[in-house]
Amino acid sequence: MAVWKSTHRYARISARKARLVTGLIAGRHVDEALELLKFTRKRASSMIDKVLRSAVANADEQEADVRSLYVHEARVDEGPTIKRFRPKDRGRAHPIMKRTSHLVIAVGEGPRK
User: Fold this and answer.
1) Which residues have CB under 8 Å from 85's CB, separation 6+?
2) C-alpha span between 12 and 36 (Å, rounded)
3) How far apart are CA 13 and CA 9, in angstroms?
4) Cβ-based burial of 98 (10 A; exposed 0-12, middle 13-18, buried ≥19)
């Protein structure tokens, strides 16, 4: 079974928040997954939508049957954390952790076992 993959590295969203959305589409048919992402009111849904469309385009370029594609893998890995500091009273500084993540979507022909 052929699998086509697409990634968005260093996405400016925490992995924990993005995993809420990837959990919705894992193992589903691509058309159903795109519909779910369209109506999901999470910031990560637009990022994951673009990655999923890119994976489908990669499959289409290799002459795969686009109508039979399923989400084979939907994974979110943690990326590097951008560290910033906020000045506070009496000379103190509090850290601000700006989290990033790597979004990985793979589509394949036929349902996931």
Assistant:
1) 93, 94, 95, 96
2) 22
3) 11
4) exposed
Which CATH number belongs to the domain containing residue 103 in this structure? 3.90.470.10
- Count of structural domains within the chain: 1
Helix, strand or coil, per DSSP, at residue 62 = coil
Domain span holding position 37: 3-109
Which residues, 6+ apart, have CB-to-CB distance to 25 below 8 Å? 33, 36, 37, 48, 52, 71, 74
In this predicted model, what pLDDT tens digit does every residue of 34-87 receive, in sequence order? 999 999 999 999 999 999 999 999 999 998 899 999 999 999 999 999 999 999
- What φ, ψ does residue 62 adopt, rounded to 5°? -90, 15
Return the number of other C-beta atoms located less than 10 Å from residue 95's C-beta.
9
